[in-house]
Amino acid sequence: MLTVEQALQQILERARPVGTERVDLRAGLGRVLAEPIVSRRVIPPWPNSSMDGYAVRAADTTGAPVTLPVVGRIPAGVVPDHTLGPREAMRIFTGAPMPEGGDAVIPQEDVEASADRIRIARPIERGAYVRPRGEDVDAGDRVLEPGRLLGPAEIGLLATLGHSPALVFRRPRVAILSTGNEIADLGVEPGPGQIPNTNTYSLMAQVIEAGGEPLNLGVAEDRLEVIESRLRWAGPADVIISSAGVSVGELDLVREALTRIGAELHLWKVNMRPGKPITFGSLAERLVFGLPGNPVSAMVTFELFVRPALLRLAGASQLFRPRVSARALDPISNPGQRRGYLRVTLSREGNEYGARLTGDQGSAILRSMVLADGLAVVPGDTVIAKGDTVEVMVLRAFV
What is the C-alpha to C-alpha distance for residues 339 and 269, in angstroms, rounded to an integer? Predict the structure, then answer.
């Protein structure tokens, strides 16, 4: 059996970005940037006021209290039409360009204003409440790098720079097949001996969360020709994922079906629990994964192996979930020789994290994933004592 690290290395060595496309910024959220962004603009393009108040010359306030005449009014979006002279003030609003000669703004609440004069009770420093030209971005600044995930702030910056459409990596297309005579698909009431189809829908959701586009190949019964035929439906997919049928039973037919459609298989067993039987291979430029059938095993192996591969296919520079060191709030036991990825809840205790098992850790107990904030990484034949530290791969934000 391979270690998790050895298996992941083999997978990522074969994962390459799937191509690029240009998208309007309104469709850019969650996409991965495929080019460096160099600013052609200065932001802000001129000094401007950060407050509603009065533009003044700071030197004129050194003898405060002083009274200055108000000689103009500058709304946002209007360029001042004359220079601010000595011992003069101009009414100015947030975002409005500073007048020539003005070098400070005094907020309106800090003055006594009459119809055409203001009284300033205290001196103000040069540059106060003034945003200088280029404070945010200067022309020629390299502001974003390829591989950056575009969030709301990045979208706003691209809009500020007038950079639309943006060149992004294409989302990988992922075909998903569930196998098993016992699987009743969504919308069908399970009959005797059947169980609901969980994996198709949890895996599709994981694909979307990882930035991919899922394609549902449905459910195939445990017959070699049926599985082979359904795998051929993958069409334009960049990745094929199947669940179940990858162990050693006489009805575990996925690996043979993959080889019959031309896939070269690179690995099979990984030293971990849950999820020891996992198949990975390549089919021309496609990646193919055969995941275990138990719902938790399928989700955990997706997290460890498929998610980083999809992120690399999508051009992302950050492939892995964050990891933290947490204090065990109760003993965390991992019997057996395989490394465990155990579902835990996380809590904050001052500057520390606390971790506690979600309950029973059976690979069919889907609620253990529903409750999990992270996966505790525990060596085989190990008990983490209460109060000792354990490494946790964080799956989601937690309070």
Answer: 13
Distance separating alpha carbons of residues 252 and 164, to the nearest angstrom: 49
How many Å apart are CA 329 and CA 396, to the nearest integer? 19
Residue 42 CA neighbour count, 13 Å, CB half = 9
What is the per-residue pLDDT for 398?
75
**Tens-digit pLDDT profile for residues 145-191:** 999 999 999 999 999 999 999 999 999 999 999 999 999 998 889 99
Residue 252 has pLDDT above 80, yes or no: no
Do residues 341 and 300 make contact, with C-beta atoms less than 8 angstroms apart?
A: yes
**Average pLDDT for residues 49-69, to the nearest whole number?**
96
Superfamily per CATH, domain 4-16+170-313: MoaB/Mog-like domain (3.40.980.10)
d(CA 170, CA 119): 60
Residue among 185, 137, 145 at smallest CA distance from 162: 137
Task: Give the predicted TM-score (pTM) of the model.
Answer: 0.89
144 by DSSP, 3-state: which?
strand
What is the domain partition of the chain in residue ranges? 4-16+170-313, 20-43+136-169, 48-131, 323-394
| Residue of 295, 302, 239, 241 whose CA lies nearest to 270 | 302
Residue 134 CB partners (closer than 8 Å, separation 6+) = 42, 43, 44
Integer Cα distance of 389 and 326 in angstroms: 5
Question: Which DSSP helix (H) or strand (E) runs through 105?
Answer: strand 104-107
Place of tokens 């945010």: 136
Gap between the Cα atoms of 255 and 242, Å rounded: 10
Are 129 and 53 in contact by the 8 Å Cβ rule? The answer is yes
Domain 20-43+136-169 has CATH 3.20.20.70: no
Mean pLDDT of the chain: 95
* Nearest Cα residue to 332 out of 321, 343, 323: 343
> Does the structural domain 48-131 have CATH classification 2.60.40.10?
no
Taking only the tens place, the pLDDT of each residue in 223-240 is 999 999 999 999 889 999
In contact, 176 and 218? CB cutoff 8 Å: no
